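Q: For a teaching session next week I want to show students how multiple molecules come together into a single three-dimensional assembly. I've collected the sequence lines for a complex. Could you give me the predicted structure tokens for the whole thing so I can convert them for display?
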Amino acid sequence: MRILLSWLRDFVEIQESPRDLADALTMAGMAVDTVEEADGDTLFEFDITSNRPDAMNHFGMAREVASIYRRPLRRPSSEFAEADILASSMASVEIANPKSCARYVGRVFTGVRVGPSPDWIRRRIELCGIRPINNLADLTNYALLEMGQPTHAFDLDKLAGRHIEVRTARPGESLVTLDGVLRELVAEDLVICDAEKPVALAGVMGGEATEITAETRNVLLEAAWFKPSTVRNTSRRLKLFSEASHRFERGADWDGTVWAADRIASLLGQTGPGAVLKGCIDCYPGSRNLPEIRLQSESIRRHLGVDLGGSEVESILLALGFRPVASDNGWIVPATSHRLDVEREIDLIEEIARIHGFEKIPATLPAVGIAPARTPKAAEDTRMRNAVSGLGYDETIGFSFSSSSESQRFGGSPEIALRNPISKLWDVMRTSAVPTMLRALEWNLKRNQPFVRLAEFGRVYQRTDAGFVEPKMLCLGASGTARPLCWSEPSRPFGFFELKADVAALLHPFDSAGLRFDSRNVPPYYRQGHAASARCDAGVLAHFGEIDPEITREQKIRQPVWVAEIFLDEVYQRGLRAPAHRRLARVPAVSRDFSLLVPESVAFERIIDTVGPMADLISLEPLEVFRGQNVPRGHYSLLLRASWQRLDESLTDEEVNSFAAELRSGLHARLGIVVRT
Amino acid sequence: MSIAEKTGRPIADLLREGDSAEDLYAGLRAQFEAELRDTRTPEHTRALRDRWLGRRSGLLTAANESWLKAAARELKPTVGKLQNQLKRDLEAALQNAMQGAVSEPRDEAGLDPTLPGPERTAGAVHPVRLALEEVLDIFRPLGYTVAEGPEIESFFYNFEALNFPSDHPAVDEMDTLFLAGKERALLRTHTSPCQIRIMEAESPPLRYVVHGKVYRNDTPDATHSPMFHQLEMFAVGADITFGDLRGTLEHFVRRFFGPSTRARFRPSYFPFTEPSAEVDITCPFCSGHGCRICKQTGYIEVLGCGMIDPNVLTNAGLDHERFQGFAAGFGLDRFAMLRYGIDDILQMYQGDTRFLRQFR
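A: Of course. Below is the structure for the complete assembly, covering every listed component.
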């Protein structure tokens, strides 16, 4: 919204520099974007919030200036001489839909000559960004910029029956608007009709057929109040936005209608010949009751934390155009039609605070006196985040959107589609964090990063019978070398067991008794045989492994890519392991190494399960796993180190020998393992 | 005959030729140490390990077979001890070598401490998370509880309960992303729905910080992202005032942006607060003198706030005659960008390790 300094000065005294004025208005809630010199004048560009249509014009802005500085406000002159003929003898108005059109004021001008406006009018509206057209159109725009009331001038002689009816459109009706476009109308559209047909879209735009032309002699000037939602719906449906619709949909002033029509009548003489017929045609079916607002001094203090004093409060309210009447402990303030946004006590308190100055309200701190509650799972989350970072994964955040095809490949649950997506690639909410991670890995690999470790804490989105759920996920992504390159170490590629170690390390702080790793039911986007799941009881804590190369190849990734999905809700609900001390042994452990020939069908975990429970056995470590050469087919060779220990006494050789024999026979008898040494 | 060749011959023969068991193992040790000195690369070291400890043809493995296993019964304890001692030493030396010690100069000058060790830097924390943690560290001691809420919201929680007039332009201004389907569900456009959810569930006094992802139907560019992070703090009680809001936020911006930062409260409009204000801070880049980033104004707009509108309290089931409160919200991404000098919001979501590692 552009405002001219010289135009403001028509209504209020201003001594301040444009910069100071801009600052003062900004600090009262009228945000000034720019201040610039234009044609020897100063032009302010405002960004006015949608609740303040009253300030989207010069007079309204002058009222703000007058309130800030508490100076008198002068109303624009609306004096003119009327002809003897009654306007109502030349035209008639009828409102069929009073809910959408509360008031319709018509004035009739006769004998006008259409031509250019005087320079001063052209200059003002042009500086404010409206193109001058002819004297009548310019007058309506001038009044709009000055007082905020949208008006419209019809060529009266082109209105069939010289009659106006305000009603909703009928099936099949259409209208060519002033911009030359044929508009098909629907039943929700409010239209201005003559005796036969629609001639204007109420509050949005006039029609071409009844437009003012060089031949126009008699004019019907419309100044009406249309319901915001009605104007808004039509304007949005047709994607037709005008200065008028902008104001009507935010709420115009129905008492401003007569005033605006009179203001235009008073300026008519300065733009050329023409007579103003006697009286307004004022069709005002529903009289409007505005509330009386009770304002208590105590409420002001209670909300703002400061007592402003009665005279300051009254002075502000009067300056803003309210008429406060003192009553018990405060005032009764009737709402006014020029400030429809003010209807409650709190609205008045805001006005008082705003004009008094937010900056003058002392800053205080509320007494603490309240203990914060523990955020559920915060301790778990902190542990997990620290561990992830400790393992060297860089935290990333990915978009929550995915495409339908991606979600079919990676998701298991019904997708959640967006009605108005940003793009086709982002038309559903993601059901899996894996594609998001693959994109981030791809981004880095295409930029030749040799060592990539990424972690995303995020949600996936699922539709269930009970509604939407948003499980929390941790997704790890890894590719490239196992470690950052360093001169002192050989470089080797990242592999399954690096990933498994990381997953295990992340699960370690949690109470996950019975944690198992297996490769049953690993999702199909993992490379089968190179992926696993971590389970605890019935719950799946994680899937992880190498992504199916068929999938990564589509993304032009030519090296193995590893991903882990950790289901945080499942992990966190187990809680953190409770720390407990166990006494340390006073004597050293004794270890023996065993070279085993193990059938391929026996997983390492079964060896642990089988002999693990032996008395005094404290660990079983795989030292070497070997296949091929002299190892028979269908078997693998395993070098296993077993360690025994008692807390307080040393184990004798005989005891260890008998343990070793028990272990050998146990493995052989129960798992068919040949112990070679 | 080289010592390597000797490992292939039975110990009895060698002893007959005049070597003692101690000599044999000393020879092996000397040979290993000489070979170890010549290793320069990790690949060499691995080859060395295979040559000596390989399971099938390693020299020490061979010695185990031809010397230890074949030794006469009375000689076995001596040979066994020598064999085990050497094996342990070799393993230790190789372990050391694999860790890089072998490649360093071993003369009197000692090692070169200016060479880097293998990198073990902790992974980066995302800048948005960093900013979040900083903010939470400021609010937690003031008694605020941290909470999150669903990102898929209902029209009621996102708009109606927050006093958005349903046919008002303010709803359009939010550029909402709606879900397909009849539920009228949407992606929350702000974290404010959590205010309602918390006020419904708990009774005042309340002090909360809520944070999380929010969504807008914005075309991505350097300053717009269809997904970003918002943080919102609110307090509800019998005597929470606008002055308290000012005091709390002034404290907050000074702690977050620096002690000389000044906050300016500018009246504004949000449907869910009244009075409403936008807070500008003195530009942290030019200390308020005017620069490119603050467009020469000396101020940067950083957050929106206000007293919670009585309608919002009523909608959440609280008596607005008894309780009042304030709320403030801002974009964490923008805070992170200002704080760390990031100029493109989309970089935040690419996962580029070069970008992320700056925040290690």
